[in-house]
Design brief:
With about 325 residues, the chain is of the alpha/beta class. The chain is built from nine helices and 18 strands. The structure holds threonylcarbamoyladenylate and magnesium ion (MG). Threonylcarbamoyladenylate binds next to strand 6, strand 7 and strand 11.
Length: about 325
């Protein structure tokens, strides 16, 4: 069955309802089609990773209808304001310092920065407004395949994983947005796109381009979130002074020096999902790691999480944290 619906008032309203209740929507933008979810709903964001079959949690771009809507979520410094004024709405993503906000920690992969974009496409604009929430959206393709520029391409790649694909023809730009990091003193193009170095310099901002080698492996450019506290995986019991990141029941988790994990003080224990639901666990992962990352904890002991479905990405993240790989 095809999920493709021509974008009009009715299908946009239906898609917005689906987003509000945690669903996934194929959304046209002027660059490429996105796989959109409510950025404030951690479990919906977890479904994006599951649908794409991404083996790791990369941070996602949050889409807004207007740059003034971004101010409660991120810090727009002077360079960001100048770039927004010149190139939004349009094919540009800015990396900004994140403010405390309801955006899911999974959408930003636990980073202190957030990727934001105001797309120009009128269907994207309409759906963001109708949903009334920022939309997290990576390109709507399976991990490792090409970004889709037509509804049929989305259907082929993600078919039954989306509630609806809003069809609005081919994307004008056909290339992902330029990603420009303005979160530090330097302005850096992390991913080249239709807004170029020359365009940015023309408005009086000096900018450096990440080298070609870096661009071939954009993951290298990312500083990943890693807790300061050591992480110990596949724990079956707890050492004195360790905090516990649980998954499922803690009834049979013993503290080596005596007692049960269920008696740990609230600051020392978090449960990714008592029901062992991997969506819930993914949504809680970065927030809970951060909450347990305290100097008084000798380590964070993590219970075993099965390496199936979203568990693969969760374990990838935990292994990086455990070996302190940035
Ligand atoms: O044109 C586009 O940008 C499309 C449409 C749907 O908006 N989206 C897109 O998303 O291409 P995605 O997830 O495929 O690429 C997002 C890029 C990734 O390279 C990611 O690493 C980077 O943005 N990114 C996201 N948050 C970041 C952050 N806080 N710091 C550095 N890079 C970030
Ligand atoms: Mg992509």
């Amino acid at each position: 069955m095809s999920q493709i619906k021509v974008a009009n008032d009715i299908s946009i309203k239906q898609a917005a309802e689906s987003l509000k209740s945690g669903g996934l929507v194929g959304m046209p933008t002027e660059t490429v089609y996105g796989l959109a979810a409510d950025a404030t709903n951690g479990e919906a964001v977890a479904r994006i990773f599951e649908a794409k079959g991404r083996p790791a949690f990369n941070p996602l771009i949050c889409h807004f209808a207007d740059s003034k809507d971004i101010e409660t979520f991120a810090e727009l410094n002077d360079r960001a304001k100048a770039l927004a004024q010149a190139f939004w709405p349009g094919p540009m993503t800015l990396i900004l310092k994140k403010k405390d906000s309801p955006i899911s920690e999974l959408a930003t992969a636990g980073l202190k920065t957030i990727a934001v974009r105001v797309p120009a496409h009128k269907t994207a604009q309409a759906i963001i407004k109708a949903a009334g929430t920022p939309l997290a959206a990576p390109s709507a393709n399976k991990s490792g395949s090409l970004s889709p520029t037509s509804p049929a391409h989305v259907q082929k790649s993600l078919g039954n994983k989306v509630d609806v694909i809003l069809a609005a023809g081919h994307c004008d730009v056909g290339l992902e947005s330029a990603v420009i990091d303005v979160s530090t003193d330097e302005t850096i193009i992390l991913r080249p796109g239709a807004i170029t170095k020359e365009d940015i310099e023309a408005i009086g901002i000096s900018v450096t381009e990440a080298s070609n080698d870096d661009i071939k492996s954009p993951g290298q450019l990312l500083k990943h979130y890693a807790p300061n506290t050591p992480v110990r995986l596949n724990a079956i019991d707890i050492e004195e002074g360790e905090a516990l990141l649980a998954f499922g029941s803690t009834k049979f988790m013993a503290i080596k020096s005596g007692g049960s994990a269920s008696n740990l003080p609230d600051t020392q224990i978090r449960n990714l999902s008592e029901e062992q639901d991997l969506h819930e666990a993914a949504a809680n992962l970065f927030k809970m790691l951060d909450e347990l990352d305290r100097p008084e904890h000798k380590a964070i002991a993590v219970m075993n999480i099965p390496s199936t479905g979203l568990g693969i990405a969760i374990n990838d993240r935990l292994q990086r944290a455990a070996s302190a790989v940035e």
